[in-house]
Amino acid sequence: MIARIWSGESPLWRLLLPLSWLYGLVSGAIRLSYKLGFKRAWRAPVPVVVVGNLTAGGNGKTPVVI
Q1: Calpha distance 60→52 (Å, rounded)
Q2: What's the farthest any 2 CA atoms get from each other in the chain?
Q3: Nearest 5°: phi and psi at 12?
Q4: pLDDT (0 to 100) of residue 55
Q5: Which ranges of the chain would DSSP assign to H, the alpha helix?
Q6: Rounded (10°) CA dihedral 59, 60, 65, 66
Q7: How many alpha carbons lie under 13 Å from residue 4 in its C-beta half-sphere?
Q8: Which parts of the chain span the membrane according to its record (predicted)?
Q9: Rounded to whole angstroms, how far apart are CA atoms 8 and 29?
Q10: Of these four, 10, 36, 39, 51, which has the most CB atoms within 10 Å of its CB?
């Protein structure tokens, strides 16, 4: 299904394309607000380790943390 949407063979891409433009617009605005100084990065008072990636589950993150 994802391959059909990606290649443009599915009508679902007509719905997803405007949503991707909206996502790009919002993420660009957030990035610009940091560059212009309207927003500031927050620093945690203690060291933080992040274990993960774009895949939500099934990559074995829990055993790595434990």
Answers
A1: 9
A2: 50
A3: -65, -25
A4: 67
A5: 2-7, 13-35, 61-65
A6: 160
A7: 5
A8: 12-34
A9: 28
A10: 10
Q: Beta-carbon neighbour count of residue 9 at 10 Å?
A: 10
* Contact between 41 and 49 (Cβ < 8 Å): no
**Which residue type does 64 have?**
V
Nearest to 3 by CA among 13, 54, 58: 13
* The amino acid at 5: I
Q: Which residues contact 56 (CB under 8 A, 6 or more apart)?
A: none
pLDDT tens string 17-39: 899 999 999 999 999 999 999 99
Residues in the chain: 66
Q: First CA to last CA across the chain, in angstroms?
A: 36
